[in-house]
Design brief:
The chain is mainly α and about 80 residues long. The protein has helices at about 35-55, 65-75; strands at about 60, 80. It has a domain at about 35-80. Helix content is about 30%, strand content about 5%. The protein has a two-stranded parallel ribbon. Helix 2 (about 65-75) links the parallel strand 1 and strand 2. The two termini are about 35 Å apart.
């Protein structure tokens, strides 16, 4: 059975090159700006609220932002790699 897979269009900062050519510029998706300290604090509060409301914990990998790792540990979650999980 051949299922049709949905496609997702992603905008890139560099326009596509001509047919048959490829460069690393085409591989970089737009990355949002780092949140300010105030935005970061508000996000952490919101995440804490959601975790508590849903009786959930956060599991974070070693390669994610340190703020997320700290938040996972502070809220009863864990930081680990996929082999330990």
């Amino acid at each position: 059975m051949n299922a049709v897979m949905p496609t997702i269009r992603v905008e890139y900062e560099q326009p596509l090159a001509g047919a048959g050519s490829c460069s690393t510029h085409e591989a970089w998706a737009r990355v949002p700006a780092e949140p300010t300290q105030a935005e970061r604090a508000a996000l952490k509060v919101r995440i804490r609220e959601l975790l508590k409301a849903r009786n959930a914990v956060m599991v974070s990998h070693y390669y994610v932002h340190p703020d997320l790792q700290d938040l996972a540990e502070e809220t009863g979650g864990m930081v680990s790699d996929s082999l330990e999980m």
